[in-house]
Design brief:
Layout lengths: L1 H9 L1 E7 L3 H10 L4 E8 L2 E7 L6 H8 L2 E8 L1 H7 L4 H18 L4 E5 L6 H13 L13 H11 L3 E9 L2 E8 L5 H4 L4 E5 L3 E10 L1 E2 L6 E2 L4 E4 L1 E2 L2 E2 L3 E17 L1 E19 L3 E6 L8 E14 L2 E21 L2 H16 L8 E10 L5 E13 L1 E5 L2 H18 L1
Helix pairs in contact: 2-3, 6-7
Amino acid sequence: MNRILTRFVSGSLRIEIRGEYAEKFLNLSLTQGISLSNIVRYDERRISADIILADIYRLRPIARASHCRFIIKRRQGLPFILARYRRRKLLLIGAVVFCIALYLASSLVLSLTVTSPYSLSQTEKARIVALAREAGVVEGKLQFTMDLEAAQEHISEELPQLSFVEVTIIGNNVLINVVKRVDVSEDDQIVACGDIVATKDGVIEQILVRKGTECVKAGDTVTAGTVLVRGYNQGGLVAASAIVSARVWYSGYGECALDKTEVKNTGKQYMTVELSWQTQIKALVWGDNTPQYQYYYQHQKSVPLVIWRNIRLPVELVITYYHEQQQDIFSYTPEQAWQQAAEAAEKNAKIALADDARIVASNLKEIEAGDRIKRARFTIETIEDIGDFSEADQQTQQQYLSLLNKENNSID
């Protein structure tokens, strides 16, 4: 980041070196301590690179010594921007004044909002807002003049019933997020009535019930979400507990073409820097948005311009990296392609495999395909615990109570 700012402030040039001994030109430049970056070779006689503006005069003796010449393709950086606006001083002053006014306007606090994951009364919200104002967080005040940490401490000291207080700024709004202390009673700590349900499709192998009433048996086929053990027994409603072992099948697919294209990075990259305001207006200050790479991928990084603490300019730097890639074509024999497809199918089948699953059988099968591609299907059979606790709703609990009453009446 410091290097980018240094080049932007000092200015840089994009030059193109032409001549039979372009490599010698580069070697002599490096020997003289001249920094060249973003070097791109077009052919044996043409090479382009970036250079700091102050080093341009040092290249002339090197050009004569290497029997080459260079031309300036692009100028970029602060010196050239200032030179462009030197004859338009009023326009530059107006732009600076506009940016300052825009920054001050965007830094004003327009409202204070209290949020909480639990319900708060209007009186409690008004009390929290009043305490924030006492600590200096007031509407119409600039954001960087407020001490948010002091406001948090003041609210926490005055309202000990709050277990968490956070004061943040989003746009022109101050958000005060609070959480009240909640004392959990012993009744609330008791696990509510619930069932054991199947988490996966499978065939029941064995079921061991600790609490509850089982509603499946060994050999039954179940799907995900099927109730295996209901949350009640002769004593009333309970939190069902059981170990349910079932046979579960996993399947994975893999394929491999006899002619395969792979893309890999070469390690070379190109970078551009833009000034962005509200992600809508952008101005290119460094680089070129048309990289010379035939194959590449790109990613961006936004860097906010922070002067001090909460003082942020209404613009940000958007840095775009272009990474060069090259495509390699590989040819496989039918046996090699089948091996690649089989390994991919087995890997895909084991992705969803549970850690406690016990593999009892596996099967690899070739799928019919064209002459230029091989496809495989890998199947794994396991035995694992598929039961999971699910809390019952009020309607389900009423149904269980009705079943209990019917069973008790039939026994009487």
